[in-house]
């Protein structure tokens, strides 16, 4: 039996190139090798979006359609929505009993987010308890591997601590899940920072060739290259970082064109924009076809939730016994 892999994704609407090369490609590879559970973390979204939850359903729809268009296959992995699984909430409740407050308060991601998302009232029980809910997500299916980004490693460490504490108090039951760090590429956004929806620097998977061209043209290049005759330094240029993903077959020529000042930045950018658009085109038409199938996403998520249900129910039955709530 292959190992179990689980990961959750906040519903973020239409995905961008950073999501594609950061998670989605990885998920598509994992579904071939492991027993995979990929779920929509809509309760997690509520921890920060509880004042405006109204867009979450559309975000879910868009994210799942992108997943499918790029090749995630519900026959090979289990896709479900967190809020369809009350077992997760029940397990989080038990974990809440045994998780000391200081574990949550010292969590670096918690402190960081409080700082970054200021303007929102986040001094809530739910927000502080985010890692407890995450531990329940993972341990309810007794997953052994969790593909996460660097930023989620402290959360996963907390999951391991919660599993250990549960095992110590009530008997050895949960595995301690390991992080599966993907070789995710860092995708720069159009301002050179990491591509992110919240920075407003993203190129989206559904974007038209014209918009892509416009966005790429606005990118900052090597600041030392003022005139066409100035030789450039591709290693400091985000346009070149993207070329490394989308212009594989001509990467040497692009590099030479820059270093030897054979090609101007505008032309170099237009080549990149064209390659990104060509790369996205088949997925965009696949996505359009999927959009026409009304109710598709709902059906996939419902089936997925039905198929994990027995596994989750088994965990909860065991947990209730171990805590002496049931015989
Ligand atoms: N916390 C993750 C994020 O913000 C999402 C998430 C929720 C998750 N539950 C999870 C990831 C369980 C891995 C495993 O991106
Ligand atoms: Fe960047 Fe291309 Fe200009 Fe070189 S030629 S600085 S790689 S945009």
Give a brief outline of the structure.
The protein has 327 residues and is mainly alpha-helical. The chain contains 14 helices and 5 strands. The chain has helices spanning 17-33, 42-49, 56-70, 86-98, 101-105, 108-116, 125-128, 130-139, 153-170, 209-217, 238-246, 251-259, 265-292, 296-322; strands at 4-9, 35-40, 77-81, 145-146, 178-179.
Name some characteristics of this structure.
binds tryptophan; 3-stranded parallel beta sheet; elongated; Tyrosyl-Transfer RNA Synthetase; binds iron/sulfur cluster; single chain; 327 residues; two-stranded parallel sheet; 2 domains; Rossmann fold; 55% helix; 14 helices; mainly alpha
Instruction: Report strand order across the widest sheet.
Output: 1-2-3
Point out poorly predicted stretches.
Answer: none
Any idea of the CATH class of the largest domain? Alpha Beta
Helical segment tally?
A: 14
The SSE order reads EHEHHEHHHHHEHEHHHHH
Structural class: mainly alpha
CATH architecture of the largest domain: 3-Layer(aba) Sandwich
CATH superfamily of the largest domain: HUPs
Helix share of residues? Answer: 55-70%
Bound molecules: tryptophan, iron/sulfur cluster
As for the CATH topology of the largest domain, it is Rossmann fold
Form type = elongated
Strand composition percent: 5-15%
Radius of gyration equals 22 Å
First-last Cα distance: 30 Å
Q: Give average pLDDT, whole number.
A: 94
Q: Total strand count, please?
A: 5
**Biggest sheet overview:** 3 strands, parallel
Multimer state: single chain
Total separate domains? 2
């Amino acid at each position: 039996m292959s190992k179990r892999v689980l990961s959750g994704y906040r519903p973020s609407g239409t995905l961008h190139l950073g999501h594609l090369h950061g998670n989605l490609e990885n998920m598509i590879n994992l579904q071939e090798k492991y027993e995979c559970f990929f779920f929509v973390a809509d309760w997690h979204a509520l921890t920060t979006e509880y004042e405006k939850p109204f867009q979450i359903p559309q975000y879910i729809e868009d994210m799942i359609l992108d997943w499918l268009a790029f090749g995630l296959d519900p026959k090979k992995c289990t896709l479900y929505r967190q809020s369809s699984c009350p077992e997760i909430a029940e397990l989080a409740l038990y974990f809440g009993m045994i998780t000391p407050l200081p574990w949550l308060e010292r969590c670096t991601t918690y402190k960081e987010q409080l700082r970054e998302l200021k303007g929102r009232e986040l001094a809530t029980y739910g927000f502080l308890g985010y890692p407890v809910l995450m531990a329940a997500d993972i341990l309810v299916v007794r997953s052994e591997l969790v593909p996460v980004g660097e930023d989620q490693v402290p959360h996963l460490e907390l999951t391991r601590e919660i599993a250990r504490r549960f095992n110590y108090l009530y008997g050895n039951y949960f595995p301690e899940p390991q992080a599966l760090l993907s070789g995710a590429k860092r995708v720069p956004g159009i301002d050179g920072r990491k591509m992110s929806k919240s920075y407003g620097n993203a190129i989206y998977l559904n974007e038209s060739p014209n918009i892509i061209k416009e966005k790429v043209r606005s990118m900052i290049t090597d600041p030392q290259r003022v005139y066409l005759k100035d030789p450039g330094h591709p290693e400091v240029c985000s346009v070149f970082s993207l070329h490394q993903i989308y212009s594989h077959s001509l990467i040497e020529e692009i590099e030479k064109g820059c270093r030897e000042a054979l090609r101007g930045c505008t032309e170099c950018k237009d080549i990149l924009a064209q390659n990104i658009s060509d790369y996205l085109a088949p997925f965009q038409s696949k996505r359009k076809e999927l959009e026409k199938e009304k109710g598709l996403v709902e059906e996939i998520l419902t089936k997925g939730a039905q198929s994990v249900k027995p596994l989750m129910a088994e965990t909860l039955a065991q947990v209730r016994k171990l805590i002496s709530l049931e015989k």
